Amino acid sequence: MSKKPRILIVGGVAGGASCAARARRLSETAEIVMFDRGTHVSFANCGLPYYVGNVIQNEEDLLVATPQLFKERFNIEVRLRSNVAAIDRANRRIEVTDLERGTTYGEDYDYLVLSPGARPIRPNLPGIDLPGIFSLRTIPDSRQIVQWIEQFEATQAVVVGGGYIGMEMTENLHTRGLKVTVVERLNQVMPLLDQEMVAPIHDTLIKHGISLYLNDGVAQFEKGEGHRIKLTLQSGHQMETDLVILCIGVRPHTSLAEKAGLDIGPGGGIEVDGQMRTSDPHIWAVGDAVEVRDVVTGQTGVVPLAGPANRQGRIAADAIMGRSSTFRGVQGTSVVGILDHVVAFTGASEKTLQKLGMWDQMEKIYLHPGHHANYYPGAEPISLKFIFKKEDGRIIGAQAVGQKGVEKRIDVVAMAIQMGATVFDLEEAELCYAPQFGSAKDPVNMAGMIAANVLRGDARLAHWEEVEESSALMLDVRDVMEYKQDHVDEAVNIPIDELRRRMQEIPKDREIWTYCFVGQRSYFAARTLTQHGYNVKNISGGFKTFSMHETAKFLS
Hints:
- By secondary structure, this protein is an alpha/beta fold.
- It is 27% helix and 26% strand.
- The protein contains 15 helices and 32 strands.
- Helix 1 runs parallel beside helix 8 (306-320).
């Protein structure tokens, strides 16, 4: 490395900006220049939906760092409205177009970092370019949406797509007082989660007056009356609205890399090694445009999340400065607030593992504990799905949904996955406790204990999707009033507190599947019956999990 290396960074926001700042912290002599074709180099794009919702009221609050701050604090030059159009790899030179002046010039580099990000998907549909149809990726995008809402006094909006941004936009448009319709071509919102775990989200959307169109997509857009837009769905259903927000995903922005002949991975992102180096030893790439390895499944793909992008920028700077740091990969840890609910997940889902042919190595459990001690006022349930390996109990994934305390538990599990922990480790995890914050047996401990019981043979599990194919006797051990309110067809009711004196009513020549509301009382019943010679399985998660599965089926 020369005494004064020249580092050029294409693109800012999370990956590029973190790389620039880290490089400066490691070298006072390096010349660092950032280029961005937009009007802001470092902004909180995850905050954009909340600016639209007027939760964040000042646009300036979205600015993480300005060109002036980069110059004064880090001695880093930032050139906005500057499009890097080409890379001359042989001569280590880039071609830059000044979008304000319309001029083109060249810049030499010792090291080049690409952080081009991703671009919103805009399908080739009739009417897609009509005014009032927006994507959300930049501060100008959010500004245009707010201006449109205010100019036309909008009262209705359609959100196309039910992923992260779709749900956040739904919440924030609803917060602004608009009547929101969500159109999602799949049979669920939040498609990275397993379908039953999204059932509470579907419920809360409907409860808050959100119109939900699943298994449907947009066929075309047409101009409606005045500023309004008419949508025709693939089902033939038609609607009119004041504005449309397209939230159907992003594609990695790889045109510059492709033009330069850099290797592109099978998922469409720029291929990089563990130090974020591309197929050119003098060029690195970070952020939403790169392909990374999933540490749980071993698969590679594009994962457009801010946390990994920040870490990748840091790793690239380390590598440029001769350090041996490597990027460990991703596990997709995420959280989304949706109206009065929170959904969070980490690791692999059941459907992903099924798709990869890995599910036969796995087991799952469901539980529904309170987010803090139930005797303390205000406890709210968390529905938690927990996936682990049958062989050794290694934790593979977790999904949780509830109103409070959700992300805290998934954060703990995320670190456990990173450290290669097992369910036995979670049994013994020492987590902070006071009644207003948690329980002496935290939901994370409970998940570990339940899973460990399975692996030790203390509990045999059944799952609700297996019921239709089973000839087992369904034993409902809830109280009589609970049973009368609703129960599984043909289930026999013997309340847990009557089980020992009524045990003779249960046949010993037939397998017994027990259930209660969340799975705890039925586990007690299963242990009692097992020790009296019965062949028993406990249905994981109880009747509450059954209801989640049934809701998912109904909405499909």
